[in-house]
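Title: [Solved] Oligosaccharide flippase family protein 3D structure

Original question kept below for reference.
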Amino acid sequence: MLNQLKRLGGDSLLYALMNVGTKLIAFLMIPIYTSYLGREQFGALGTIDSFTSMMTFLVIFGTDSALAYYYFDKDHKGNKIEYVRNVLLFRFYVALSLLILSVLFGPALSYAITGTRGFELVLQLSFIVLLLEALITLVLTYFRYEFLSKRVVIMTVLRLGLVALLSYAFLRFISPDVEMVIYGRMAAALAIIVFLLPQLKRFAAFKFNGKLMKELLTYAAPLVPASMAFWVISQSNKLFITHFEGLESVGLYEAALRFATVITLLTSSVQMAWRPYSMSIKDKPNAKSIFRNVYVLIFAVGMFGLMGVATFVPFIFEAFLGEDFHEASMYIPLLSLGTFLNFYYLIISVGLFIEKKTKPISFYFGIAAVISVILNLILIPLFSLWGAAAAVTVAYGFACVSIFLRSQKEYYVPTPVGSIMFMFVTGLLSIAAVQYVLQFSELSIWYVLIPWLFFALTNGGVLATLRRKGRVEETA
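Solution (posted by the thread starter after getting help):
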C-alpha cells in the first residue's frame, strides 16, 4: 500500500507544481483584467465564461469518466487507443455544432447571457476556443492515463502562460476590450495544437466504432445531468446577479470567485491524479483501506487550506486589486469552502464509479441544483452577493453528503464519519473567527492566532487519535 500511496503522492506533487504555476498565472492576470476591463466588462467576461463552461460539459458529456474506466479495465486493454479516438471524434462534432449555433444565434445569446447586445463576437470567439481546447484536453487526458505527468505539466503551463502573455499584450497594445482576452486564448490554443499534432494525427478518425461508442455513452450519459446541475450550482448565480443587480455586481462577484479558487492549488492536483489512480487500484485487496486513509487525510489538508485562504487571501486581494474591487474580499472564504466541497465529493464517491452506478450522482446534483436556484432567488435580493455565495456552498454541501452516503451503500469504505464531522465543525468555527478578526472588527491581526491555535488543537487532536487507533496508517 505504501508504494501505491507514493505513486498517488508523486503524481499529485507534479500536478500540484503545475497548478501552482497555472493558478499563479491566473492570479496575476486578475489585476490586469480588472484594471483594463473595469467592473462591467469583467462581469461580461465572467458571465460568458460561465456559459461556455456549461457548453464544455456538453462537449465532454461524461466521456472523461467513461474513458478512465474502460482505459484501465483489464477486459478492454486491447482497445485503449480506439476508445480515445471515439471520444476525440465525439467531442469535435459536439464542439463544432455549438460553434455553428453561436454564429446563427449570436445576438439572442448575447442578450440572454449578459442582458445586453454587443457581445456576439466574444461569444463566437469563445466557442472557437472551446473547439480547440476540446482537442487539447483529450490528448492531455491520454497523457494522464499513461501516467506521463511531465508532459501534462509542460503543456498545461505553456498554454496558460501563452494565454496570459498574449491577452496582456492584446489588451495593452491593441485595445482594452474583452475581445482581446479571447483572442489571446485562441492564439495560445492554436500554438499548443501545433505541438500536439503528432498525437492528434494518431487519434484522428472519420467514423465512430459503434460498439465502443455505445459502451462509452452508456457509462457517461448518466453523468451528464450531474455536470449540468454542477453548472447551475457553480455558475448560474451570475445570471441571477446580472438580472437583479447588473454586470457591475457580476464583476465584483467574479473577482471574489476567481480568488476563491486559490483553494484549487490544493485540490485540482489531487483531482487529476485521483481518477486514474483509484481505478488502477480498485481490484487490490487493500483498496478500501487506502481509500479510507485518503478520505481523512485529504479532508484534513483541505480544512487547513481553507484556514490559509481566510487568513492570507484578503491581504493579497487588497494589495493587488483597485479600490473598486476591495469589497469582494469578504466573500472569498465562503466561496472557497464551496469549491472544496465540490472537489471532495469526487474523492468520497469512488464506490459509485467502481460499481458503475453513477446515476445517483446526477440525481443528487439535480436536487442540489434546484436548491441552488431556490436559494439564489430568495437570498440574492435579500443579501446580495452573500446570498449567491451561500447558495453555492449549501448546494455543494448537500450534494457531497448525499453522494457519500449512497456510495457507502454500494461500496462500503470504513470511514470515521464522526471524526470528519467534528473536524468540519471546528474548522468552520476557526475560519469564521479568522474572518471576523480580519474583516469585521477593529481587533489586532494578532488575534487570528487564537482561532489558529483552536484549529490546531482540535483537528490535530482528531488526526492523532485516529492514528493511535490504527484508522490512519503511517505513510511516511
